């Protein structure tokens, strides 16, 4: 995700608590979705779709933070 911002992501995860929370929740959702899709965790299509939408929203929020931080640098 966002390979062009790899270094900035690493820095923001330690320096920006808001970004770190977004990043952690995004990874948590990714793991939950993978478990649901593989059958490890039982879930219906609606539950998976809901988590995917939340994950996408988090990705959008992280992108906004990354763009602002890159412009400030």
Automatic annotation (TrEMBL):
Family matches, as InterPro entries: DUF465, DUF465_sf
Pfam families linked to this entry: DUF465 (PF04325)
Protein's name according to its UniProt entry: DUF465 domain-containing protein
């Amino acid at each position: 995700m966002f390979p062009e911002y790899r270094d900035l992501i690493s820095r923001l995860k330690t320096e920006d608590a808001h970004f770190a929370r977004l990043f952690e929740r995004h990874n948590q959702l990714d793991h939950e979705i993978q478990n649901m899709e593989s059958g490890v965790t039982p879930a219906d299509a609606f539950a998976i779709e809901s988590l995917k939408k939340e994950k996408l929203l988090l990705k959008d929020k992280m992108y906004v933070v990354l763009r602002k931080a890159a412009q400030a640098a």
